[in-house]
Each structure stands twice: as structure tokens, then as C-alpha cells.
Amino acid sequence: MIVDQIVKPDFEALESALSESQGLDKVLVVFATCSVEWRGNRNGSIGTGQRIILCKPDGAISVHRPNWARAIARQGVNSTLELYPLETGFLLYASKSKGKHTIHIHLQEVPLVVVYSATDKAEPEHRETEEEMHAFIQSNPETLEDGLRILHHEHPIDVGTIDFVGADRSGNRVIIEVKTQYAKLSHVDQLQRYVKHYNRTDNASVRGLLVAPEFGEKTKRELRESGLEKCRLNEFQHQDLGPNQSSFERWQ
Amino acid sequence: MIVDQIVKPDFEALESALSESQGLDKVLVVFATCSVEWRGNRNGSIGTGQRIILCKPDGAISVHRPNWARAIARQGVNSTLELYPLETGFLLYASKSKGKHTIHIHLQEVPLVVVYSATDKAEPEHRETEEEMHAFIQSNPETLEDGLRILHHEHPIDVGTIDFVGADRSGNRVIIEVKTQYAKLSHVDQLQRYVKHYNRTDNASVRGLLVAPEFGEKTKRELRESGLEKCRLNEFQHQDLGPNQSSFERWQ
Q1: What are the φ/ψ torsions at residue B160 (nearest 5 degrees)?
Q2: Does residue B247 fall inside a structural domain?
Q3: How far apart are CA B5 and CA B2, in angstroms?
Q4: Which of A30, A56, B39, B245 could make an S-S bridge to B241, C-beta 3.0–4.6 Å?
């Protein structure tokens, strides 16, 4: 891991750092006063301010303000990054998908560029709460309703994949959609679509059940009006995790 | 704009840089070999790799790998950032919403920390393509259908806001939902919800029309089966924008 620092780079220094970083394992971190304009899925611009620009070797670029976690402008891998001289500074230009996505960054002052030779071969492990909820429901269907049995998990139909197909005590089919977040109107829509398209192989009637940790008033009303049901499953609220409660055992 | 560089900080140096940055206009950019674990809306972890961590004065934190534009872990403003000593390095711990959202970062090697005194008072201007599409439809409703008139723009009803309510040549009401992206099944659901809940003040019948640049086969079929209609409006594909085609006039 090598960290090179270029203080107040001129055009040549910044240009060569940028072109050398592309394709190699070098990230360019540009500390700059700049204005930015972006076009593509979102269009917008922002005037002059002090920001941090990450230029990654795979062509990804993101512009960070000194506040908020999210980048103000961001473009994915395989962007082309180029530098042009301007009368007052430099233009850092990122272009992707034949110019459909572009970011123009007017670099007015660049006190520091850090060239970071970094490699990261680790694979992230996503342990979504959704998976945990699914495993719980699979093992404990009676938590949703007495006598409920699970027939299929992640059952594909033509208009999506049903989380669970169950059978209730009276032999009705139950289409179950599971949400880890506050239930929204769009979740009701989705459940309704599944119920509508579910192909009954027998004469059993079909119920729709939305499972979520919380339901708002509008969602409850929409469920009632659509003849659908709800089940509040709040076991999966996240618990308080202190600094010593990481699952990385080796940490302490 | 002041950029301070701390090469290979020890615990005290990193701890005081972190605590001094919070609340002041200082961003901490930490270059580190680290492993990370995150909990909250998403749960996951990643083993050891070389990464860049942005700690912002408003409490926002994001961990960036040397590839992809998106952060691997991110937490919003008002997080509490703390540093703890470990046998092998430091634990950078971010906690938000009473521990519901946490990030544990095991810093194993920290070759450089940059303390960036940055201010950014600029307000971003979002010129969403959606706004442009709305303005276009408002001015040119006949592009969607001969004789169509717009009655309301952004018409609130109980279950959302209808983009446009129009009247067709035969006096029917037309509920119009506008999408800037490829039309999806969930957009059909949304339109169907609006049509269902739209309160007719007269005896006119109600049609539903989904407007988007592209439609897939499943979406088309679902629209047909739901008795809804579609209109392809591809004028709003993004044009090719070169480095000299920014709208910042002062740039060249």
C-alpha cells in the first residue's frame, strides 16, 4: 500500500496522475474547490464549494461534499475520465455510455491529490434482514397464523416471485409477501398483483397476507379495501449494537 | 481551505483528529487497510482490504473500496463516531438511531489521514429529466393523444399524487402517470391504484395511461390485462455531451 501526495499539482502532474491511475490499482483522491454539473439519470449542477473527488481505477467517480453520506454526483464503472486545461483551473470530465452520462467538474483550486495504491480482494457478505425473516417464517409459520403451513418458498409466477405460498387451516391458499421495512402502498399493489396472477391448481380460494414490522394507516386501509390481510412481525427490529458487539470475533 | 496530513497516526493522533473534526468544518479522509461490518437497513460485512473512509463533520460516514462508485457501507448525518484501541489497530465505530444503525471498522493499518477544512455553501440545482417531461407534456398533451387536454398537474388524491389528469376527445377522464425510466410492473400497479381511487365528480369514465421512454413485454401484457394504456415518449433520451458542452458558460 503506497500513498503518494501531490501538493498543489499543476496540469501536467494531475493529468499524468489521472492517466496513470486508470487501469492500475490506484485511486486518486482530489481535494478541490470546484463546481459540478451532472447529466444522465439525474440532471443537476452545484456552484463552487470545497469537495472531495474519488477517481477509481475502474473508471468510477464520485464527488463528495463536506456533508451528507451520499455523493452529490456519481458515475459507475467504465467511465472515461479526462482532464482539460481551462483559463481558471482544470476541467475533469467523466463520460459513460457514449456520453449519455456525463459529469463536468471545474477544478478551481487543488491543494492536494493523494494517489492511493490500494487493492481489495475481499468479497462482501450480505446478511440481509430479509433473509433472516424468511428463514424465521419458514421455520415458524404459526407465528403468522395458527395452523398455517408453508407450501413454497420464493415461488416464481409470471409477474414476479411470491415470497411464500402457504395453506391455512381451512385449506385456502395464502400468498405471503414479506417486507423488512415499514409497509407502503406499493407493497399492497405488489401483493395484489401476485394474488391476481396466482394460478390455482385446485378449487381452494386465495388470500393475500402482507408481513412487515410496521403498518401505516393508509396502508392498513388500502389492504382492507383490497380484501388483503396484514401481519405485524416486529421480532426483526434491529437491536442496539455497541462497539464491543461486532460479530468479528477477532476484534477484541 | 486547509489540508493537514497525518502520516501513520497513532491512537492519540487519530482520536483527537476525529473528535476535533466533529461539529467543525473538517472532513477526515482515512486511508486504511480495514475490515468492516454494518447493520441497519442492510446487514453485511467485508474482510480485509484497502479502503478510503470519509468522516464528515455532520456525523455522516462512508467506506469506499478502490472500485465501484457506490460506498460499501454508509451511514447518514448525526451518527456518533468513536475510536477505540484494539490489540491490532483501532476500532472506528459509528452508531445512529440509538444503535439501530451501526458500522464497525477495524482499522489495521493507517498510512495516512487527511484533515480537510472544507466549506461548501452552494445549493445544488436539480434539473431532473422528470421535470422536463412534465413541462413538455403540460405544453404538448396532443403528443400523447390527439385531442387530449390537461385538467390538473400533480393532482393529490388519498393514495398518492396523480401526475396529470386529462380529458380525452370523448370526455373521458385520463389518469396519466409519467416515468423517465423503462416502465416496470410496479408502475402499472401504481397507475392502477390511482385509477381505482380517483373520485369521479361526474359520470365520465376513467382511463389510465402510463407514459415512459420504453416498455418491456411483461409490462405491456400487464397493462393490457388491467385495461390500462401506454404511450412511448422517447424524446427525453439523453443527448451526447462532450467536454465543451457544459452549461457552465464561464468554463471556457
Answers
A1: 140, -170
A2: no
A3: 10
A4: B245
Low-confidence ranges of chain A (pLDDT < 70): 1, 23, 127-128, 201-203, 234-240, 247-252
B3: confidence class by pLDDT, cuts 50, 70, 90: confident
Backbone dihedral angles phi then psi of residue A232, each to the nearest 5 degrees = -90, 120
Which tops the pLDDT comparison, B201 or A81? A81
Q: How many CB atoms lie within 10 A of CB A167?
A: 16
Whether B248 is in a domain gets the answer no
Residue A53's DSSP bridge partners are: A30, A63
List, in sequence order, every residue forming a beta bridge with B44; answer none if it has no partner: A126, B38
Backbone phi and psi for residue A23, each to the nearest 5 degrees, phi listed first: 90, -25
Residues B136 and B231 in one domain: yes
Q: For A186, what's the count of Cα atoms within 13 Å in the CB-facing half-sphere?
A: 10
Handedness of CA A36, A39, A41, A42 (dihedral sign): positive
Are residues A89 and A192 located together in one domain of the fold?
A: no
What are residue B229's phi and psi, to 5 degrees? Answer: -120, 165
Residue of B nearest to A87 (CA): B252
In a domain, A89, yes or no: yes
For residues A14 and A103, membership in a common domain is answered with yes
Residues of B in contact with A159 (CB under 8 A): 185, 218, 222
* Set of cell numbers at residue B154: 400533480
B110 and B38 in one domain? yes
- CA distance readout (Å), A196 to A31, A96, A207, A252, B225: 54, 41, 10, 53, 11
* Long-range Cβ pairs for the range A162-170 (8 Å, 24+): A162/A194, A162/A198, A163/A134, A164/A134, A164/A137, A164/A138, A165/A198, A166/A141, A166/A209, A167/A204, A168/A207
Instruction: Please tell me the distance in Å from A224's CA to the nearest CA on chain B.
Output: 14
Identify which of B92, B95, B77 has the alpha carbon closest to the alpha carbon of residue A67: B77
By residue range, what is the domain housing residue B140? 129-236
Inter-chain residue contact A37 with B246, CB threshold 8 Å: yes
**Residue A204 C-alpha, separation from nearest chain B C-alpha, in angstroms:** 23
A77 and B69: CB-CB below 8 Å?
A: yes
From start to end of B40-148, where are the E strands? 44-55, 61-64, 73-75, 80-86, 89-96, 101-117, 125-126
Strand pairing report for B206-212 and B229-232: parallel
How far apart (Å, rounded) are the C-alpha atoms in residues B144 and B150? Answer: 11
Please indicate whether, in this complex, the C-beta atoms of A190 and B186 are within 8 angstroms of each other.
yes
Q: pLDDT (tens digit, 9 = 90+) per residue, B126-151?
A: 766 777 888 889 888 998 999 999 99
The region, left, alpha or beta by phi > 0 then psi within -120 to 50, assigned to residue B86 is beta
User: B13: exposed, middle or buried (C-beta count within 10 Å: 0-12, 13-18, 19+)?
Assistant: middle
Rounded distance between C-alpha atoms, residue B22 and residue A107, angstroms:
26
